[in-house]
Amino acid sequence: MGAIDLSGYKVTDAFFGAPFIEVDEERERPSPHRFVQGGFADTDTEFAFYLPPAEYYTGRMFQPLEGGNGGHAVTFGGGILGEMFQRIAMSARLGGYMVESNQGHKGDDYDPKAGEDPTLYGHRASAESARLSKYVAAQVYGSAPHHSYVWGGSGGGRRSPLCLENAPGVWDGCMPSTSGGEIAEPGNTERVKAGSIMSFGQMFNVQRLLGRDRIIALADRMAPGGSGDPFEGLGTHEREELASLYRQGFPRGNEFMISEPMGQMWLWTSLADELHREDPDYFANFWTKPGYVGHDSPELVEADLIHQTGRVVRTLSARDLNESADFAGPEFQTMRILAAIVGAGGEAYEFPYAVEIEGLKGGYRVGTGVQILTGQAAGRSLYATGAAGDVFACDGQGDANVLRFTGVEPGDEVLVDNRRFLAYCYFARHHVTDDPAFAHLLVDGRPIYPQHPVPRMSSLMGVCYSGQYEGKVLWLHHTHDSSVWPAWGTLYDRAVRQAQGEAGARRNFRIRWTEYAEHGPYGMVPPEPNRVAATRLIDFRGITEQSMIDLIDWVEHGIEPNGTHHTFVDGRVHLPASAAERGGIQPVASAAANGGTRADVGVGEPVTLTVTAAVPPGAGRIISIEWDFDGTGTYPFRHAEIDGTAAELTVSTTHVYDRPGTYFATARVTSHRTGDVHAELCRIETIAQARTVVAAAAAADADAGTGA
């Protein structure tokens, strides 16, 4: 392993000082590679290069961008995310090495020299890190990469197109997923206005108004075999707020996630202080002026108010939350998952991530402000990403994000105050954009409610999209994403058509929809009462790798990838029902129990379960169909006759339930491009469900005797 010499490297962007290396060593986890980590002098920009053994290198570079605001140079190379996504190994399989950067900043802090310049965080730091990696690769492998690819999901999906748009010649292809944003002219330096700031407040309000039990009932009505009526049993105000949530684009079929705020709550905690600082009048007017719920209808919020002081019992790390029996209950599950991701198995696993507070009574606690009043950390302001009992997991902006509860000691006094959060729950009414998702809040083009300036996202999210770029973009979006809603997946499609015209869009852009996929792997999603996430959501990692292969073939060999046909009406993305019409690469499937979406039977009575599945033309063949009968996610039955030769199949099996209950039988259908039934990679999944309601035998017999 020869030493890497950076003395001859000349930065392209004069903002950056000379590059330096701090770590250069061989590593085995999560897969074998040479690990090189360093930064650029006089800046906060850091980088990490993951260089697999030379026998894997065929001349490509892959650069995944971290989600959220970014801020970490080592995200997908180690810890829980490295093990989960295996991006080093995927880069090696595809003939390349992997690059990461902290995208110009540490945590949520701005670079002191750049300040709030969104161009640094949106694309410039990533571009200079990519250029340097090519210089290093030429020394390590003997040649620089001939093609380079930038990609990412969520915040990484937000910024990866900015890289292609604003740094021509650095990358050849881009594969963003699950993101969106505002459109402006090429070369713009504007921070982004994003409907998510308003729409997440709308989601939190529905969560608050309905509560967990009624959201579970809502999810059941919208599940296969349910009534399909989301408004059943709701009061007038609850109906209005849920309807507004749907109109703003929340995905049908994923209503359970309204009760489980994950990435959405992070957005609030990262922006809460900035929103108040930029428009304090809104947060005051909400409680004091006509036209706002807090003033006009205080009964809708008063019962949830909390404005109390308490004292710290203890601080808690990600390790505490995930390994202590005190926090093993289901009420801590989402908190445990997010803490593990933040900790990612490294030093941050021991970080003071949450706090237990005594002396509080009542109030709605998710999203509430937690301000440290005494002690070493006095004055620090955080917000609850999750709350269970008297335990609050918190985040914040700037130093608060970096420090969390560092320096907080037992006995320190804190103020717990949710007045800002309750005002934020009605933010959408008073911050209407020109996005069609907010048209229902206008009459004759005029807003119904008093208006305030629409806020912009943090500079860490980069600049507005232009849709103008050199290269190819293959955009992936998920139909069941509760953090980046399907409606937002249509924005970049529109940007490209505006900038490049229909002909340019056909040459350079495709969108692929993934049905039944959430923002992250289903292992991160809490279970519903009668079905785990693995029975209603899919593992999309196979779609990701196959799509990257297709992007490479498009860029390097001119082989056009299949896009997914869709329509967008009233805040909702609609996909054609047949595989042939839909396109893309994911199988399309439907399931039935005794011939319908719902079967009512007695204990011991056999149920015939049928699934019909088809793969879009040119996308491969079916290699597996499995059944999970009871919502546990075990998939114990597999149709042995499937041999990978058919692109369309209808198969059935029979199952008997031995106890009463409601069961969702799930067929998991998997395809593969070459029909390889033994393939471990690039397995493309979909699911189909049917409901079976099993009555006790005595009750079923009584119904039969009366003709019911």
TrEMBL record:
* First and last residue of the signal peptide: none
List, alphabetically, the InterPro entries matched: Ig-like_fold, PKD_dom, PKD_dom_sf
Describe the location of the PKD domain by residue ranges: 603-672
Q: What's an example GO BP annotation here? A: carbohydrate metabolic process
The name on file for this protein is PKD domain protein
